[in-house]
Specification:
The complex is a heterodimer. By secondary structure, chain A is α/β, with parallel strands linked by helices. Chain A has one domain: 3-Layer(aba) Sandwich (Rossmann fold), CATH 3.40.50. Chain A has six helices and 14 strands. Chain A is globular. Chain B is of the alpha/beta class. Chain B has a single domain, classed as Aldolase class I (TIM Barrel). Chain B is built from eleven helices and twelve strands. Classes of the chains: A alpha/beta, B alpha/beta. The interface between A and B is large, with 45 and 40 residues.
């Protein structure tokens, strides 16, 4: 079962419907103990970094997520939930994150006035360029578009953790990252129509594949 | 090398009671149909985003569309923005919990601009769309209206949009009260003036009667998205058909 972490900052409803749509067993929880029983974890997030981290800490959810990730449980962070996987963010002052992937979250560059540029917040549907293969993106075609709405992105320390990029005002923003069983996407798969549902379906299959067959005895 | 994102095509569903309605210049509302049926149709035809505006919520100080949005969100996996009658951070939490991804605020923000800052701090700017109902008052001059085009606020639109951005708005929904429902095209001057004053994405609303209007506003004003009611509701174009026309005119679209 996939646990959707509910810490009061995320579009839990849409995410739950999307997982249901792709046939993934899931539950919504704010209980650290239930997170430790999950075979997969999705960390959603809408809002500001520090506020979200405070909420995770108050509910002792941060440690539960880290522990599960260290045990190899597949973890998917979405949007702010992806940013939280990193060491820290500069949003509203320096705030520490979960530190599951090395790097800092910072503003997207604004670009030069007068030249064609991406306005910030970066809102809309975009093609992404894959940098590394990953089971989640195995079915992603070059013409597929994904929905973004964000002003910040992670700057991973190790380029090997970058799975996909999006060109934004002169830089290649890391919009999908992964390290072992921990993966994050800046776009919203639950809001990216059939393309996004396909990615979530692939994540759900990963969770299933990794699940130990413990019910046989 | 950066490319600007393709313009978004948004379907605008003005809600009154249990129905989607459409008027002319925000008046004479006509029933169009069931919000669930329209949402499903637009989603299946490839809409980029859906906007729900409760047209009577601020009049009665309540919000009756959340259950409707929740039902629509069950099988619609594109972004949804909800507006109409949202007055506080608590109201916004309720909208987000019912499946909204973004909220549009107008009346409450004009009355108390600090609401924009509070909402941006709690949910991030990307979640906060400031909705502006603009009525032309003279050459280069527009007044902001509230309560779904019913009340004049005395606030100058071009000053207001700059202030809204400074307070943390993530996007602007600019509706022309004069052009709404007329099918005579967008208020290009208004959108150009707004564009020149803010950096954040701008959504144009009011006046689209044919594909050429959509193409013109996107080509001439550097706005980021168009919200269409009439043209889709009365099936002058399907979403896919409208996007095909946009593509044929050289605009990049998501098909």
């Amino acid at each position: 079962m996939i646990a959707i972490v509910n810490y009061g900052r995320g579009n839990i409803f849409s995410l739950a419907r999307a997982l249901e749509h792709v046939g993934a067993d899931h539950f919504v929880t704010e209980d650290p103990e239930r997170i430790s029983t999950a075979s997969g974890i999705v960390l959603p997030g809408v809002g500001a970094f520090r506020d979200a981290m405070d909420r995770l800490r108050e509910r002792s959810l941060g440690d539960a997520i880290k522990l599960a990730a260290s045990r190899g449980v597949p973890l998917l962070g979405i949007c702010l939930g992806m940013q939280i996987l990193f060491d820290r963010s500069t949003e509203f002052g320096d705030s520490p994150g979960l530190g599951l992937i090395s790097g800092t979250v910072d503003r997207l560059p604004k670009g030069e006035a007068g030249a064609p540029r991406v306005r910030i917040p970066n809102v809309g549907w975009r093609h992404v360029a894959l940098r590394k293969s990953h089971p989640m993106t195995a079915d992603l075609a070059p013409e597929d578009m994904l929905y973004f709405v964000h002003s910040y992105v992670p700057y991973p320390e190790d380029p090997r953790h970058i799975l996909a990029v999006l060109p934004v005002n002169g830089m290649e923003a890391a919009v999908m990252v992964g390290q072992g069983n921990v993966v994050g996407c800046q776009f919203h798969p639950e809001k990216s129509g059939p393309v996004g549902l396909r990615l979530l379906g692939a994540f759900a299959r990963e969770v299933k594949a990794r699940q130990p067959a413990r019910r046989t005895a | 090398m950066s490319k600007t994102p393709p313009p978004r095509l948004i379907s605008r569903l003005d809600i009154k009671g249990r129905n989607v309605v459409k008027g002319i210049q925000f008046e004479g509302l006509r029933v169009v149909g069931d919000p669930g049926v329209l949402t499903k149709r637009y989603y299946e035809q490839g809409i980029d985003e859906i906007l729900y505006i409760d047209t009577v919520a601020s009049l009665y100080g309540r919000n009756n569309i959340l259950s409707m949005v929740e039902k629509a969100a069950e099988s619609t996996f594109v972004p949804m923005t909800v507006g109409g009658g949202l007055r506080s951070v608590e109201d916004i939490v309720a909208a987000l919990n019912h499946g909204a991804d973004k909220v549009a605020i107008n009346t409450a923000a004009v009355a108390r601009p600090e609401l924009i800052r509070e909402a941006a701090e709690a949910f991030g700017s990307q979640c906060v769309v400031v909705s502006v109902e603009a009525k032309r008052r003279g050459p280069g001059q527009w007044e902001a209206f509230t309560d779904n085009g019913r009340e004049a606020s005395g606030v100058d639109v071009l000053e207001w949009v700059a202030k809204a951005e400074a307070l943390g708005a993530g996007e602007l929904l600019i509706s022309s009260v004069d052009q709404d429902g007329t099918c005579r095209g967008f208020d290009i001057d208004l959108l150009r003036e707004v564009r020149a004053r803010v950096e954040i994405p701008v959504i144009a609303s009011g006046g689209a009667g044919e594909a050429a209007h959509v193409v013109t506003v996107l080509r001439d004003t550097e706005i980021d998205a168009v919200a269409c009611g009439h043209i889709l509701h009365f099936e002058k174009h399907s979403v896919a058909g409208l996007k095909q026309e946009m593509r044929a005119s050289g605009l990049e679209v998501r098909l």
